[in-house]
Amino acid sequence: MAEINVIPLVDIMLVLLVIFIVTAPLLTNSVKIDLPKATSAPDESREPAIQFAIDAAGQLYWDGDKINHDQMLQRFAAAGAKAKPPELHLRIDRRTQYETLADVMSEASKAGVAKVGFITDPSGRVTTDIQAPAPVPQP
Asked: In this structure, are residues 44 and 50 in contact, taking their beta carbons and an 8 Å threshold?
C-alpha cells in the first residue's frame, strides 16, 4: 500500500510560517491613509472661547488684556458660573514654566471651565517671541 509523504508539506508550511512571521510586523507599522479634505464654515452659534496667553516671564493675558492672578480667579469664576462655560484656548510661550501652566489649568478646572485647547503655530517654525492674542469680537 502506498503511503503519503508529509515531510515536504511540513517543510513548505514552516517556510511559509517564517515568511509570515517576518513580514506581518512590517505591514502593520506603517499604514498610509489618504484622508479626505473638508472645509466648513466656523460655527458662529457657539459662545466665543476665552483666549488666554502666558508669556515667558509668566505674565497672564485674558483676551489680550494683561491681568494678575486674582483677576484670573475672578474671571474664571464668572466664566464657570455661566450655563454653558466657554472653551479655554491657551497660547503658551515655549519657555513658560510648567508650574504656571498647571496653576492656570487647575484654577480653570476648579471654576468649571473644563474644555481646554492648546493653540500652536501650524507652520512648525520655532519662534522666540509671543504676542498676546487679538481680542475676539463679541457678537
From this structure: no
